[in-house]
Amino acid sequence: MWRGDFVHCPSLGQLGILRDHVLEVDKKGFMVYIGPASSPEAETRLNSRASVNRIPPGTFLLPTFYDLHLHAPQFLYQGTGLHLSLMEWLNAYAFKAEERIDSSPILARRVYTRLARRLVEHGTGAVLLFGTIREDTNLILAECMKDAGIRAFVGKLSMDKNSRPTYVEMSAERALSAAASFVDKCRSLESAMDPHERLIEPVLTPRFVPTCSEELLVGLGRLSEERGLRVQSHMAEALDQVEWVRQERGLEDIDVFEQSGLLTSRTVQAHCTFLDPPSFLRLAQKGTAIAHCPLSNAYFSAAPFRLREALNSGVKVGLGTDIAGGYDIDIMSAMRHAVTVSRIREGSRHLECAASGARPNEHKSLSIDWKESLYLATAGGADALGLRAGTGQFIVGAPFDAQCIKVVDEETGRGIGSLDFLDNESAGTSAWSLSEEIVEKWWCLGDSGIASISDQYTPCSIHSRHCHLSRLSFQLLPAGEPYNSGQVSP
C-alpha cells in the first residue's frame, strides 16, 4: 500500500494529479484501490495495514515509460555515425554492428546487459526491441531484459535481400522457419512461470520493405495471423528509402505491408514520416499503431512526422527512441523533441498563412503540448502496444507500473538536480503541494544521474526515478499479465 502524490495522464492532453491518495496493490500486481487518504474507506484500509509505503513531500509516483522502437544491437555505437543518409548509414554502421554482435555471444550479453541497465536508469518499463537475424543472440537479448525486470517485446530480424552478403538470411523459406523457431524458443523461456510473472514476448520483425522479398513478407503475415503474433517494422521513414521501394516495387510502403497482411491491430510501424492523412485513416481502420521517433526523424527523414494529423485520424501513437538512429535512450528526450517538432510545424503553418494572406485556423493547430507528450510516453504507448486497458495509469483494475520522481529534497527543501524552486525554498516541504506547474518544470528540466534513495522504497521494489533520475530498484507490472520482478541496483 502506498500513500502520497500520484501523477498520470488519463487521456490525451489531460493531466491527473492525485494529491495525498492511498493506492493498494494485490499480490499479483493489480491496483485494487485508489482514493483520497481522507476518505473513510482509505482510513479503514490504512488502519488495517501494519506498514504503509509513504511517498514523502517533494516526491510523486508516475507510470513508467514505454519505448516503442529501439534497435538493441545498435546500442553498441549509440551517438555516432549520424552524418549519413539512412541507406548509407545502414551499410556503414547498422549491418556491421549487428553482424558483429551476432558473431560474439560475449559481446551481445555485455551490450544487452548495459542496455537494460540504461533503460532502468531512464524510467523505461516496457520496450519494443529490434534484434538481429541470429536466433541465439535474440534469446540473449530476451534473457537480459528479463533479468533486469523489463517488459520486453523482442523481435528477431527477418531479412532475405539487400544487406551485406554475410548478414542476410539465405532464402525466404529459411527466414520464415527461423522466425517461427524463435517464437517457440522465446516463449519457452518463461513457459514454466505463472502468466503474471512473464516478461518477454516474441515479435515478428521484417526489417523494412527493401530488405524483405514478397514471399517473406506474405509468409510473415500468414504466420502472424495463424499464431496471433505481434508485428513491428519501419514504414515510409526516409526519402531515399521511400524512393527505393517505389522504383523496385512500384508501390508505396503502406501498400506492400497491407497486401502482405502485416497491417493489423497487433502491428506497430516506426516513423511513417511520409504518410498523408488518407494513409492515417487506413492505419486507424486496421488498428495499426505508430512509433513516433522525433530525434531520429530529424537526422534521417526529409520531413517531420505529421503527429497531429495521425492523432486526429484516430491512429494510436507512442514514442520511440530509435537507438541508434536517435542518440538518446531517454524517453524524456523523445517527449521534448516531439513537442519541439510539432511547434515548428505549427509556426511554419502560420508563416505560410501570412505569406498567402490567409488567416490561420486556430482549431487546426499542428502542435502538441507537454501533457500530450507525457500521455504518449505512458498510457498512449501502452495503448499503442495493445496492452491491458488502463495500463500506464493509476486506476483500479490496471497493473501497477510506476516510477518514483523526486523533485524536492525533503531535508533541505531544495530542488533536485537542475530544478530550483526559489520562492518556496525557505519553507522546505512543510507546505508542499504538488501542482501542474511543478510537474511541467520537471518535464522541462529533469535530467539523469544516479543517486541514493530511501530504503522505504526497497521492500515494494518499485521503479525509482528522481528528477535527477535516481534508481535503486523497481517493479514493472505489464499490461495484461502483471508480474513481480526482483530488485535491480544500478
TrEMBL record:
- Molecular function GO labels: guanine deaminase activity; zinc ion binding
Q: Extract the InterPro entries matched here.
A: Amidohydro-rel, Metal-dep_hydrolase_composite, Metal_Hydrolase, Metallo-dep_hydrolases
Top-rank lineage group of the source organism? Eukaryota
Every Amidohydrolase-related domain range: 60-405
Q: SUPFAM superfamilies under this entry?
A: Metallo-dependent hydrolases
Names of required cofactors:
Zn(2+)
List the record's Gene Ontology CC terms alphabetically: cytosol
| GO BP terms | guanine metabolic process
Specify whether tRNA-binding is a keyword of the entry. Answer: no
Which keywords fit this entry according to its UniProt record? Hydrolase, Metal-binding, Zinc
Q: What is the designated name of this protein? A: Amidohydrolase-related domain-containing protein
Identify the species of origin: Phanerochaete carnosa (strain HHB-10118-sp)
Lineage of the organism: Eukaryota, Fungi, Dikarya, Basidiomycota, Agaricomycotina
